[in-house]
Write a structure and sequence with these properties.
About 40% of the residues lie in helices and about 15% in strands. It is α/β, with parallel strands linked by helices and about 575 residues long. A hairpin with a 5-residue loop joins strand 9 and strand 10. Helix 1 runs antiparallel to helix 2, helix 20 packs parallel to helix 21 and helix 22 packs across helix 23. The two termini are about 40 Å apart. The chain binds one DNA strand of 29 nucleotides through helix 2, helix 4, helix 7, helix 9 and helix 14.
DNA sequence: GCCGTTTTCGGCCCGACTGTTTTCAGTCG
């Protein structure tokens, strides 16, 4: 049972308690624990097996700890005597509908005796729903509408796509008079790998004018709500975009509040209350005097609370607040720290651009080095290199290095790992290369045991410097292959193999919590783009985002080092 | 159910918007 599955059980428990009308703080406790479990960097099943303490996970106390142990050991959780008797049948399905909370779900199930979404639709059409207490035509219609939205609801979209939407919107709104500081907050700013909706913040002298401009943008499909300072719309494809406008001098507290995460803000507020402050998007209120202090910047806001500035990417209710109180927030890695890209394809295999163009583009980015790592031949579709063409490419790179100044092109290859763990290129060829990547591009459905055997065998090869896109997942769509991350990290440490943080927006692999764990263990990591064209070198900013989420500093990543130090850190 | 630089008991973040009401409950973020 993995963390996601365990978390799901506790989310469900919270829903059921909510339906029962339980103490809301108890419900929140379960939600909080679920959320912590979901984001934990270690697998709980492992922790339970090793008999270690679960109480270090925030929000997990005596009771929930015992429930996690039961759950992991038996696969079940007995919390309700007879859930079927206690809850109207089918009630939890209603909770998935946006705008339907526990109160409404309960009302629908008990008053109308319906159990499915289909029955609910029929009940709305026949007018039975709008006659219920505190319901009306409009509410019923909204529920119907939201059922349809739920059906065509796309999954969370990869951050790469969301950033494109934001770029479009900000470009269209930039000329609205008096609008300033228009930026994305929320999960986008925290750089979560996928985004559920987009939260835009801005400041303006005339909020209403901005709200009007926003809600009448050409690609706005539907207006969900529109108030004086805030509006929510749906754009084509179903993505929800929220805009919130405030006064210029409130920008710091506004941005802080809407960047979240929710849990980060809750902890921050509790802490502030103990200091006699109440926090809101408008600023900090002194509870005794009722006086409101405004903040134009987030830095000033955190400072007022006695905290070091906390970068958005780590505002996830881990240990960031207590660390900030002690001044222990590290300087997280930045784009400017990166000195080279180590995973680049050219038109020698399936890339679009030439060796020369890639080298020039890397130099333009200020890099000291770039490794050319075209595919090996095993990947039929990618016109991969065999020994002979690899030899020619090495010669071409040597020649290029003679001509180039200010950047060193390293020879390399992304060699395929076969199903039996053998590499798709003889060692005599690999040994000549500066940098060798091994990775999997086929046989994704192997069992955990086979998969690990295959990967570890490749890592044990002294010519293999890096194991790339370690879980092979694709966003959205392909689930990670059966990799045991703890075992992988151990093997990486033992063999001195580097793990890649692949920046391709459809991969982001290692992901944030794996990066966090690998860093804790001292596993060597490289951030690289897997470029197939010169534009892709720009994917590095995605890697920076997720590496920061994993609390990475420059020293945790090998390609922040100057060339000589970088080469010295490789296996050979 | 969790948790502690007031507390091992008594608290638990804060505000906007909608739709239904006629002062507010429910939902959301």
């Amino acid at each position: 049972m993995n963390n996601t599955e365990i978390a799901k059980v506790f989310y469900d428990v919270a829903d059921l308690l909510d339906l029962k009308g339980e103490n809301p703080f108890k419900i929140r406790a379960y939600q909080k624990a679920a959320r912590s479990i979901e984001h934990s960097s270690v697998e709980l099943e492992q922790v339970v097996k090793e008999g270690k303490n679960l109480r270090e996970i925030p929000g997990v106390g005596e009771a929930i700890e015992q429930k996690i142990i039961d759950l992991v050991k038996t696969g079940k959780l007995k919390l309700f005597e007879d859930p079927k008797k206690e809850f109207p049948k089918g009630i939890t399905t209603f909770l998935d509908i946006p705008g339907v909370g526990p109160k409404t779900a309960n009302l629908l199930a008990t008053e109308l005796g319906i159990t499915s979404i289909e029955e609910l639709e029929a009940a709305i059409v026949s007018g039975r729903v709008s006659k219920l207490y505190r319901m009306g035509d409009k509410t019923a219609e909204n529920i119907l509408h939201n059922i349809q939205a739920l059906r065509r609801k796309d999954q969370r979209i990869p951050i790469g796509e969301a950033l494109t939407v934001v770029d479009e919107i900000t470009a269209q709104l930039k000329d609205v008079p008096g609008l300033k500081n228009l930026v994305a907050a929320g999960s986008l700013r925290r750089f979560r790998e996928t985004i559920g909706d987009i939260d835009l913040m801005g400041t303006a002298s005339d909020a209403e004018a901005v709200i009007n401009a926003f809600t009448t943008l050409p690609f706005v499909h539907e207006i969900i709500s529109r108030g004086q300072t805030k509006a929510s719309v749906r754009v084509a494809g179903g993505l929800q975009v929220d805009l919130r406008i405030m006064e210029h001098e409130d920008f710091g507290s506004l941005l802080q509040y809407f960047t979240g995460s929710k849990e980060h803000n809750i902890i921050l507020r509790k802490r502030a209350l103990r200091q006699g402050f109440s926090l809101s998007e408008y600023g900090i209120t002194d509870v005794k005097t009722g006086e409101l202090e405004k903040f134009a910047t987030e830095e000033a806001f955190y400072k007022r609370l006695g905290l070091q500035y906390i970068p958005p990417e780590i505002r996830e209710a881990g240990r960031e607040i207590e660390k900030a109180a002690k001044g222990e927030i590290p300087r997280l890695i930045e784009l400017g720290d990166i000195k080279g890209d180590l995973h680049v394809h050219t038109d020698w295999s399936d890339g679009r651009d030439s060796l020369e163009d890639e080298a020039a583009a890397a130099k333009e980015r200020g890099y000291e080095y770039i490794a050319i790592t075209d595919h090996s031949r095993g990947l039929g579709i990618t016109k991969g290199l065999d020994v002979e063409r690899l030899g020619k490419q090495i010669a071409a790179i040597k020649e290029l290095n003679r001509k180039l100044k200010g950047i060193r092109v390293l020879t390399g290859m992304e060699v395929d790992i076969h199903a039996d763990g053998k590499l798709d290129m003889p060692d005599e060829a690999l040994v000549k290369l500066d940098f060798v990547i091994a990775s999997i591009h086929s046989g994704f459905n192997e069992s955990r045991e086979k998969m690990m055997g295959r990967i570890i065998k490749a890592m044990e090869n002294p010519n293999v410097d890096m194991y790339a896109h370690p879980t092979c997942r694709l966003l959205p769509g392909r689930e990670p292959v059966a990799v045991d991350m703890e075992e992988l990290f151990k093997a990486a440490l033992r063999t001195g193999t580097i793990l890649e943080i692949n920046a391709s927006p459809g991969r982001l692999d290692l992901k944030d919590k794996h990066i966090y764990r690998a860093r804790e263990l001292g596993v060597k990591m490289i951030m690289s783009t897997d470029s197939h064209s010169v534009e892709h070198l720009g994917f590095m900013r995605f890697d920076i985002g997720i590496a920061r989420r994993g609390w990475c500093e420059a020293k945790d990543v090998l390609n922040t080092r100057p060339l000589r130090e970088f080469l010295a850190a490789l296996k050979k």
